[in-house]
Every structure is written in structure tokens, then in C-alpha cells.
Amino acid sequence: MNRKIKTNLLIVMYIAATIAISAQNKPTNTFGLVYRDAITENVPGRVNIHPVTYKLNGINIAANIYTPANYDPSKKYPAVVVAHPNGGVKEQVAGLYAQRLAESGYITIAADASFQGASGGEPRNVDKPAFRIEDIRGMADFITQFAGVKADSLGLLGICGGGGYSLAAAQTDKRFKAVATLSMFNSGVVRRNGFMNSGISTIQERLIQASEARAQEAAGGKVLYVADSPMPTQEEELAKIPYDLYREGYIYYGNTHKHPNSTFRYTMSSLLDLMAFDASTNMNLINQPLLMMAGSKADTFYMTDACFNNATGTKEKELFLIPGATHIQTYYVPEYVEQAMKKLNEFLGKYL
Question: Which long-range contacts (CB under 8 A, 24 or more apart) does 15-22 make?
């Protein structure tokens, strides 16, 4: 089977999945959740969801806390902070893993990043590494004060871009006793060099654009955005995309798990910070147990590999490949989610 036929076959399969999952997601989930088997109501004795808001550096943060079945606030439970992907929101894959972890007995939190999703902050969709790292610390601040949480048993799970920022947060924040990533995406390296180094020749040009965008914002002008065009949805458009990450990402975010607060766009001026960030630096500062998970067919694996190899400061680290999975498939395909959760439960159970 040649590559073109194989690609078209995959697209047909995803479109079919789109129709099935779209039907599954109706009527609208009470909590806005778009993942499979999401909580639709809080039932006594089962995993419950608690929408909360809190202040972080003057910004209102919107989050969901998941509590285990038969949760008793007078008891003590280990907790896990879950950081969402770039462009994602708490109602998508971050919520799925937060719910599954709560089913395993953890109190979990998934929050929308500041300036994104249902959280506050202007202009919208600022995407600066320092803010994303602070968001993770802010989730730790809040969840460790939540009734029933054992503060010295706090774990961290970062997914996609949230994975890169989680590594950066854990380098210095030792409240996190165990650190895990899933399909880690090194946002700064990709924004600077392009995916698989496809944009190296335009680095200086894009830095000039980002500088000019910041100057325009400072002068009260229009805020400029990157990736602000509609996501491609037609088979012909999708077939032309050379990378699984983006082709399958458009299907996940634009169709099967679409959420109104989720968008790929970010402010052009954010590139001034993004392009100087690299999650693989200072990895030797992580001395906590580390688990990095990725699909064996993920075209983003080179990012996980680089960070894992640089994690020389911990004696307990493991790289776990999910056989047959691509980057996006680890977000929702049941068999791959099950494998990730099995490994995650083994890891967190050992160290928390």
C-alpha cells in the first residue's frame, strides 16, 4: 500500500470517527466535557467534578477538580496536577486523564491556562512559557489547599505542550514528588525552528514580525495572531498535510473533540518569549522520579527523546512507548489511553 493510499484511508477512518463521536457528544455535556465517557452529573459514591475559580497573579483561573469515588474530605488523598496541550482546554484530553486518575483514587485538577480557555487575561491567547509554567505552579497552590489533599503526595502530568512546561516547572518546584509527560511537545523549539526543523531559515524574519507586533500592541494597535485561520476540515486539505501531528490534530480539535474555547491561535508577540524557550535545557535539575510516555509512531518523539536523555539528575526515570500510537491518538483512542493509564498508575502508585 503506497503512502498516498494509506493516508487517504486513515482520513476516511477519522472522518467516520468524527461522525460517531459527534453523535456521541450530543446532547451537550453539562460540564462542557467533550471526551469519551465523561462525567455528565455528580452522583454520590462516584467520581465527581467540581468547577472552581481562583486568582493567580490577578487573573481569574477556571479549573475542574475531580474527586475519587466515595470522597471523604476528612481523609487524605494523593493529588495530581494535569497540564493541557497547546491550544487545548481542560474539557478535552487533560480532563480525560484527570477523570481517569480520579477513578484510580487521586484528587486531580485541570485548569485552563491564563489568557486561554475560560480563564481570564487580556489580550486573549497570549502563550508565553513563563505564564504556562506559573499556571502549573498555581494549580499546585490551589489543589494542595483543597480538602482531603495530602500536600506532600503531589504528582504532575503534562500533556503535549503542557508536558514541556511541566518539565520546566518541576525543575525548580519540588512540591511535585513525581513527574510524568504524555506526548511531550517542546513548544519553544518548534516555534523557533519549526516542526522537525522545517522553519530554521525564517527565524530572524519571524522574530522581526514578533517585535513589530509587540510594538503595535504597545501603541494601542491591533493584536496580531499566528495560526488564526480556520482549521482545514476537507479530506483534500487534510491529505496535503505532511505531518501526522497536524493532520490528526486538526481532526481532533476541529471535529471529533471540538470545544468552543479551544483554538490554535496565539499572539504574534508571544514568539519573543517562545522562541527563546527550550524544555530540554536544565533537565538535570529534575531529581524527582520521571516518566515520559509517547506513541511509538509519534512524529513528535524526538522531543521526548531529547528531554529524557538530558534528565541526568534523577536516578528514577523511565521512557514508555505506547505501541502503534501517534501523538494525537494518545489523547483519546481507548486502547492507547488504557496503556498510558496502566503505566501512569504503576508509576504514581510507586512514588506517591
Answer: 15/235, 15/251, 17/251, 17/256, 18/251, 18/255, 18/256, 21/256, 21/257, 22/255, 22/256
